[in-house]
Amino acid sequence: MASPAASEVYIVEASDRDHAAKALWSEAGLPSLDGKAVAVKANFNSDDPFPATTHPEMLEALLGRIRDAGARSVLLGERSGMGKTAAVLKNRGAVDLAGRAGAEVAVLDDLGPEGWEAVPPDGLHWERGFLVARVFSEADAVIQTCCLKTHRFGGHVSLSLKNTVGAVAARDPATGYNYMAELHSSPHQRRMVAEINRFVPCDLAVMDATEGFSKGGPERGERIAPNVILASTDRIALDAAGIALLRLYGSTPEVMGGRIFEADQIARAAELGIGVRSAEDLRLVALDSESKDLVLDMRRILDETV
Fold first, then answer.
1. What is the per-residue pLDDT across 144-153, written as a single tens digit (0 to 9) for each?
2. What 3-state DSSP class applies to 55?
3. How many CB atoms lie within 10 A of CB 167?
4. 142: helix, coil or strand?
């Protein structure tokens, strides 16, 4: 497949998340949300504080931007992989935040068969395909926010592509088939993660890299503090930039080795046409003077050929 036009990843200093969200929102070229039903996929995989999960200030800032953009409705959908989703959302403050912003909350574990769209296994590494929550597949627009993390259970990294796993069913509500057991036991896990993103749309992805995990993850690990937030309409571009940022701080052997665009998640997503296909098609754009040196270092890492 031909590579799409070059994609931008915007980067801004993150001491004020609300200001950063405004700056990124205005630059990212997001289509109009006026009158649209918007679904939000944050990162609430476990009942652990940021950077394991979405920071409350980031969720509040994004919900505010969506509301101000004229969205007809906003729905926060989530399925936690480590813990009970309803409890995680409540304990992390997401339920109260959503309520104050006028957004609904959907606990995906509670959806019946009618709440899921079946994706067949044709051409995929999934034995039976998988189920995507209709709150995402049928939304007028999807906004997601992810964290900067490594993943010690086979994913290698947990960025925007991996965050989308929470939009699919853990089990088939009709048959009980365990999709997550298949995913986490498969040698193709990272390719399977990428394949989900072909069927879950995303109009804008925001990565809160104020802090992150450079080793361990996804719920705990070795902390780093890049103090930036990144955003792109292209999940591949955003994740490639995130890997470059992890490499800058020093990370696991799996993250540090090889060309970034040859990493399983990135390569399979590019093969499926989800975003850019090479580092040459990716532009890093610093939105303030504080981020310029960091962007230069990340660009150098992206351009490395070994």
1. 999 999 999 9
2. coil
3. 26
4. strand
Question: In which element (H, E) is residue 255 found?
Answer: helix 253-256
CA atoms within 13 A on the CB side of 205: 32
Amino acid sitting at position 5: A
Name the CATH superfamily for 7-302.
LarA, N-terminal domain (3.40.50.11440)
- CA angle 151–53–200, rounded 5-degree value: 75
DSSP state of 207: E
| Angle subtended at Cα 253 by Cα 236 and Cα 54, rounded to the nearest 5 degrees | 50
**Cα-Cα-Cα-Cα dihedral of 197, 270, 191, 229, to 10°?**
-60
The yes-or-no verdict on residue 215 having pLDDT over 60 is yes
Q: What's the rounded Cα separation, in Å, for the pair 128 and 162?
A: 19
Radius of gyration of the chain (CA): 18
Integer angstrom CA distances of residue 50 from 18, 75, 162, 217, 281:
16, 21, 17, 12, 31
Retrieve residue 45's tokens: 């995989």
Contact 290, 13 (CB under 8 A): yes
Q: What is the pLDDT of residues 68-118, one digit of tens each?
A: 999 999 999 999 999 999 999 999 999 999 999 999 999 999 999 999 999
Find, among 237, 235, 229, the residue nearest to 280 by Cα: 237
Residue type present at position 138:
E
Let me know: does 79 contact 167? Beta carbons within 8 Å: yes
Query: Percentage of the chain with pLDDT > 70?
Result: 98
In one-letter notation, the amino acid at residue 222 is E
Reported as half-sphere exposure (CB side, CA atoms, 13 A), residue 45 has a value of 26
Residues facing residue 78 across a β-bridge: 107
Distant-in-sequence, close-in-space partners of 297: CB < 8 Å, separation ≥ 6: 248
